[in-house]
Amino acid sequence: MPRQCDICHDARAIVRRPKTAQSICKECFFHVFETEVHNTIVSSRLFQRGDRVGIGASGGKDSTVLAYVMKTLNERYNYGLDLYLLSVDEGIAGYRDDSLETVKRNKEQYELPLLIVSYEQLYGWSMDSIVQAVGRKNNCTFCGVFRRQALDRGALMLDLDHIVTGHNADDVAETILMNIFRGDISRLGRCTEIATTGDGYVVRSKPFKYAYEKEIVMYAYLRRLDYFSTECTYSPNAYRGYAREFLKSLERVRPSAILDIIHSGEAMHVAADVQLPTLDRCERCGYISSNKVCKACVLLEGLERGIPKLGVSRTNAKHIEDPTANRAVDLVHFETLRRDALELRRIRMENKQTTQPEPDASCQRSACSCACDNAADCS
Ligand code: SF4
């Protein structure tokens, strides 16, 4: 006899939740998954009404589910957010070009504006050309550093207040393990935070911090979302792959291992007498950095000077010597991007004031359908 849902006791159970071991029906699964993400958003006070929020969209399952859930929750709970899709094109033929086609379809399906920023356009180097120069050993170091900056640059181009990314509980637990294995205390502290200020201007957060990867896959499958599921061509050598395998083997024997690792990471605190790097601005591009020159500028200089290992290890980073290295592309300074963003905001506010509809004189608040400024307060 088919098993009944453990929650509604009515419909047939079709999902066994890895997180709680409950057997539940499709509708209850959608409800608990979305409600847990909503609870994470509310309890962490991630957004303010009116925030312009960019969804880091790669076309993969995590970011596609994130875009769908953010749009759903924004409408259901009236968060009052302006949502955007923000994608980074690393320039990986046969992988990112295909996944970006998925993002373009998501743009139509979810009716969200989309901005794509590319490594080629920002840095003058695609990942394919970087791999040709550096080989397949340290390619993910370049990709990770460049992506982080690319997202922050895209956020300023769109004048966003906030970027949400699809990092899930498995990703967070892997990162905690990797930082422990590497002894990277300062990153260990930061990686458990649900929200950080990336470049110092835009908040970054992970609404799926406590959502299991398996549940995200189930959600995407059961909702029949349009997503791309091929692995990056250059991923097999990524260090994260080993941490992932280790985590999966732990999860097999103890499914709560993922959340346990996250809670352990959250409970760890850096002793007061440990000296952590102090953050300043890169003297070349203005990005936030604990050194005079940020990692992206050092890596770029190494590429331009034909010594790609410059900046890959900490020792090599000290050998940076040419502050005016010829670049294929001049990185736009972050202060310039910031000024442009503020100007955009000023124009938007002016337009909003001139196009604001007159309040409806018959406004009853409890049954109001006008578009006046009080609409947010109407119940
Ligand atoms: Fe970039 Fe490495 Fe991820 Fe591929 S696996 S997208 S190269 S970080």
UniProtKB/TrEMBL annotation:
Q: Which SUPFAM superfamilies match?
A: Adenine nucleotide alpha hydrolases-like
The answer to whether keyword ATP-binding applies is yes
EC assignment: 2.7.7.-
Question: Which Gene3D superfamilies would you find in this protein's record?
Answer: HUPs (3.40.50.620)
Question: Per UniProt, where does ATP bind?
Answer: G56, A57, S58, D62, V88, G166, D171
**Cytoplasmic tRNA 2-thiolation protein 1 C-terminal domain boundaries:** 281-310
Going by the entry's taxonomy, the superkingdom of the source organism is recorded as: Eukaryota
What UniProt keywords apply to this chain's record, in alphabetical order? Answer: ATP-binding, Cytoplasm, Nucleotide-binding, RNA-binding, Transferase, tRNA processing, tRNA-binding
Record's Pfam families?
A: ATP_bind_3 (PF01171), zn-ribbon_14 (PF16503)
The protein's annotated pathway = tRNA modification; 5-methoxycarbonylmethyl-2-thiouridine-tRNA biosynthesis
Subcellular localization, per the record?
Cytoplasm
GO CC entries: cytosolic tRNA wobble base thiouridylase complex; mitochondrion
Q: Which residues form the tRNA(Ile)-lysidine/2-thiocytidine synthase N-terminal domain?
A: 53-240
Q: Which GO terms describe its molecular function?
A: ATP binding; nucleotidyltransferase activity; tRNA binding
Keyword Transferase among UniProt keywords: yes
Chief localization: cytoplasm
PANTHER family assigned to the protein according to its UniProt record, in alphabetical order: ATPASES OF THE PP SUPERFAMILY-RELATED, CYTOPLASMIC TRNA 2-THIOLATION PROTEIN 1
Free-text function comment from the UniProt entry: Plays a central role in 2-thiolation of mcm(5)S(2)U at tRNA wobble positions of tRNA(Lys), tRNA(Glu) and tRNA(Gln). Directly binds tRNAs and probably acts by catalyzing adenylation of tRNAs, an intermediate required for 2-thiolation. It is unclear whether it acts as a sulfurtransferase that transfers sulfur from thiocarboxylated URM1 onto the uridine of tRNAs at wobble position. Prior mcm(5) tRNA modification by the elongator complex is required for 2-thiolation. May also be involved in protein urmylation.
Cited HAMAP family = CTU1
What family does the database annotate? Belongs to the TtcA family. CTU1/NCS6/ATPBD3 subfamily.
Q: Protein name, please?
A: Cytoplasmic tRNA 2-thiolation protein 1
